[in-house]
Specification:
The protein is of the alpha/beta class. The protein has one domain: Uracil-DNA glycosylase-like domain (Uracil-DNA Glycosylase, subunit E, 3-Layer(aba) Sandwich), CATH 3.40.470. About 30% of the residues lie in helices and about 15% in strands. The protein has six helices and eight strands, in the order αβααβαβααβββββ.
């Protein structure tokens, strides 16, 4: 099975998944979207109201804000892959529970292996915990960590609701604007560099 077939299979399976209680709050599943050759792989926590209506990750205000950040380094949403640790909306936008994270774990793993991105950006503590289970996001955000035993780097970004604006930092140091990130204007992300998105939406 090639990468496109794997992603399509995940989408089909999540649409009818009954592995956990989130099946009952699901209007439509939100498996994720993006190109199979994406270099950057965003992982949020879970679909919200608008995502549950449209079946797409990061729509509404959060999606618009992410698109603005990407545009500032000359990238488009269509160039990155975006998904969540759970593929169905938790009731009332509550935090995903352990059994729900476990139920979706295989879907996410297969997506990561199919795309094999250079950079994984975890948005929030639940997606961060997949790679750094004992870390605190306030201490680890912006620090790159090699994952999957290869060239992929993962780094955590805070996902704070209710505040603006957003900013970005390079290698955990303040004072760097996202547009000044090395490699940003080339539309290629160097393996040796990371970029931290601090999303405040």
């Amino acid at each position: 099975m090639n990468s496109v077939e794997t992603l399509n299979e995940v989408a089909e399976q999540t649409a009818v998944c009954t592995k956990c209680e989130l099946q009952f709050s699901r209007k439509v599943a939100v498996p994720g979207e993006g190109p199979v050759d994406a270099e950057i792989f965003f992982i949020g926590e879970g679909p919200g109201f608008h995502e549950n209506e449209q079946g797409r990750p990061f729509v509404g205000a959060a999606g618009q804000f992410l698109e603005q950040l990407l545009a500032s380094i000359h990238l488009k949403r269509e160039q990155v892959f975006i998904t969540n640790v759970v593929k169905c909306r938790p009731p009332g936008n509550r935090d995903p529970q352990a059994e729900e994270l476990a139920a979706c774990s295989d879907y996410l793993e297969r997506q990561i292996l199919a795309i094999n991105p250079k950079v994984i950006v975890t948005l929030g503590r639940y997606s961060m915990a997949r790679f750094l289970p004992n870390a605190k996001i306030s201490e680890i955000h912006g620090q790159a960590v090699r994952v999957h035993g290869g060239p992929t780097s993962a780094f955590a970004a805070q996902h704070c609701r209710g505040r603006f604006p957003a900013f970005a930092r390079m290698d955990g140091k303040s004072g760097y604007d996202i547009r000044n990130f090395p490699g940003a204007h080339s539309r290629r992300i160097p393996k040796s560099r990371t970029i931290e998105f601090i999303l405040e939406v």
